[in-house]
Amino acid sequence: MRLLKIAFLAMLAAVPATLSIAQSGPLQIEITEGVVEPLTFAIPQFQAENAGSDELARDISRVIASDLSGTGLFREIPAGSFIANRTTFAEPVRFPDWRAINAQAMITGAVGVDAQGRITVKFRIYDIFSGAELGQGQQLLGTRAGWRRMAHKVADQVYARITGEAPYFDSRVVFVSESGPKGNRRQRLAIMDYDGANIQFLTDSSSIVLAPRFSPTGDRVLYTSYETGFPQVFLLDVASVGRRALRTGDGLMSFAPRFAPNGSTAVYSLEQGGNSDLFRIDLNSGARQQLTAAPSIETAPSFSPDGRQIVFESDRSGTQQIYVMPADGGEARRISFGEGRYSTPVWSPRGDLIAFTKQTKGRFAIGVMRVDGSEERLLSASPLDEGPTWSPNGRVIMFTRETLGENGAPSIYSVDITGRNLKRVELPSAASDPSWGPLQP
Amino acid sequence: MSIGGYLSGAGHVGLIGFLLFGPGLSSDPLPIEDIQQVSVISEAEFAALVAPPAPDVTPEIPTALPVPDPAPAPEPVAPVEEAPVVTPAPPPPPAQEPEPDPAPDVTEITPLPETDVTDTPPVVPQTPEVILPDPVDLSTIRPRPRPAPRVAPEAVAPPEPDAVVAEIVQEAAVPNDTSEAVAEEQDATSPEEAATQSVTEAEALEPPSGAVTSSLRPQARPNRPAAAEPEEPRTADAQTPATDDAVAAAVQDALNAAISEEPQRPTGPPLTGGERDALRVAVSRCWNVGSLSTDALNTSVVVGVDLQENGMPVSSSIRLVSSSGGSSAAAQQAFEAARRAIIRCGVSGFDLPPEKYDQWKEIQMTFNPEQMRSR
Prior knowledge:
The complex is a heterodimer. Residues 12-23 of chain A have low confidence and may be disordered. Chain A has 2 domains: 39-163, TolB, N-terminal domain (Rossmann fold, 3-Layer(aba) Sandwich); 171-439, Neuraminidase. Chain A has 5 helices and 32 strands. By secondary structure, chain A is mainly beta. Chain A has helices at 2-13, 15-23, 54-70, 95-99, 147-163, and strands at residues 27-31, 39-42, 47-48, 74-76, 105-113, 118-127, 132-133, 138-143, 171-179, 186-193, 200-201, 209-214, 220-225, 232-237, 243-245, 254-259, 265-272, 275-282, 288-290, 298-303, 309-314, 321-326, 333-334, 341-347, 353-360, 363-370, 377-378, 385-390, 396-402, 410-416, 423-424, 430-439. In chain A, the strands form 7 sheets. In chain A, strands 2, 3, 4, 5, 6, 7 and 8 form a 7-stranded mixed sheet that branches. By secondary structure, chain B is mainly alpha-helical. Among the domains of chain B are: 229-265; 273-372, Fusion Protein Consisting Of Minor Coat Protein, Glycine Rich Linker, Tola, And A His Tag, Chain: A, Domain 2 (2-Layer Sandwich), CATH 3.30.1150.10. Chain B has a 3-stranded antiparallel sheet with strand order 4-3-5. A two-stranded parallel ribbon of chain B has the order 1-2. In chain B, helix 6 packs antiparallel against helix 7. The longest helix of chain B has 19 residues, at 3-21. The interface between A and B is large, with 123 and 140 residues. Strand 1 (27-31) of chain A pairs parallel with strand 5 of chain B.
């Protein structure tokens, strides 16, 4: 009995610690469900700091708003809903006025023009509901001719600061501009801002051009041209528009070129006797290396971001499928096993996904899959979609969509990798074969 | 009395005597280990037993709570006032001198007019064969409308054509000739159309097969009930009359020690499961992950917040407690989205029982986006 009392007392002695553990700490709950909708933002027109900058301030504000809204991740609150009017850039933000219209973020800015004609853009980003500035204000200095780039730079900063993604607005796309009737199209290489502005042509329309590909630094373009009478890979310098044919194979047809991540080598397809294989070429020395030697058609090669692997399409299994092999050749492994035919694979800049064109049941789709072929997801569907290209941050894909019929024409579309925000890139004429360049320095 | 009666009486007397004075009722006490302590508990304590599990103990979280703000915090003065000229922040290196445009002017680089094209394009041997499908009337193969642009936990039907998208539903006010009071005209409003999952163009065109495409997620195993509420002092009082004073004193000392060592212990009844769910749903409605990076969507964050007695969060108290699954930058983005959710949906105060303020004056919310990645 005495032992029992001692044990009972010992047990009681432990009670304080037990009670303390069970009751300390705040209430805890777990949130697993949320909403997926654009983040609302307000962008009062940037302040004009002198008389000559009023129009610039308005235009820059509009380009920033267009960039952000165009991602589908943001939704601009129209200026007509604003309660507060801002008169100076230094004016403090009255957060309740912006909360009242449910603005979650706000961008304020000012534009000035100095005596030399250079423009200055200042901006700040605010988290309205937190009542705090996001990061620090920044200032850009540039020329009047480069005002759109400055606007893209501001939008890039806002996008990166709020979403955490790498930016992509200040980038360009090389593509094939097409004009004329469907049976007699004239094609020219052209470059544009990612949003379709500032179109500039790189070649004339005297010959057929296909599949341009930007270099990793955006200063050169590889493409296929019929300038010499048969398809041949050309290298073009964007600044001087000078071009030269690569010595890809004596008198043989070469096509589907693409730069390696180091920019000094490229891969392409070479047709020999009805069969095509993949080759690698040093752009400086012209040295070539054969990567595949299969009795089938291998084409559309694309490097992984680290340059160690190549993804390509091949019909060695009987139908077009996607394969991955080491960058210096070797055994290839098939990664696409779904229904239909897979083509034009392109490795994501992030390295985690491969975009492709899929043809099944008479329809085409742009899709993405993991680099091992898993988690395939189709993002689009139409009678003819093809040729995906990645944005510099790996978040958006552009591709060609062609409408059918006598008046059918190709257009460039873009879509988020989530499948949302599918939209057409507004261009004045038909366009195809986009290749997204890097973020500009 | 008959002989049988005497025998029966003697037998009963003997049996009673055996039970009273014999070994029948003087057996050894039962082993102490077989005894189960039973105490009377209140209704609130019983609710605590059957309620969802108590919050995990996080010893490193400071238990001292800041004094709740008596009124909404004043608006912070924007730092812009102090720095009218944005100079401290270095401009991004690439943007300091954006060049006008490296590409040459169109007219200079493309002197050849289009009319110069006279040659016939050569035959393209490698032109991929394009199989054109039969003309398809898209309207006949679209089984359902395009997905709503907003993904929310609960699907909301598209608003009426003449309705304005708003948070609340209200009928349009129309002039009523028969009424003396003139109703102010107002637009009909309806919640924004929402779906529970984003659907790509490819998926939208897929006809519904009717087949089960995914199995139900098995329900989680129920957790053990929350730990019992601490015994109130009256429990000790109930034991005071016990014959053993030493035991009573020990119980009293132990309980006093427990109380004195935990001055911040929440008091009052705990939140019910329904009250916790209501809070969870309230925050979910404003937790917008649509603008988060893919890296941030792989990051769970635990956010601590202090609430005022009116249920409004103290903005300055919202803090990132911990994160998992992503980089520090991703954790920061995820935290900012969580902070916006707490402030936006708490702007009018969360609907929490005032009598249980001690239970919810400090909350840690875990924002786990795992289920939102596929939306």
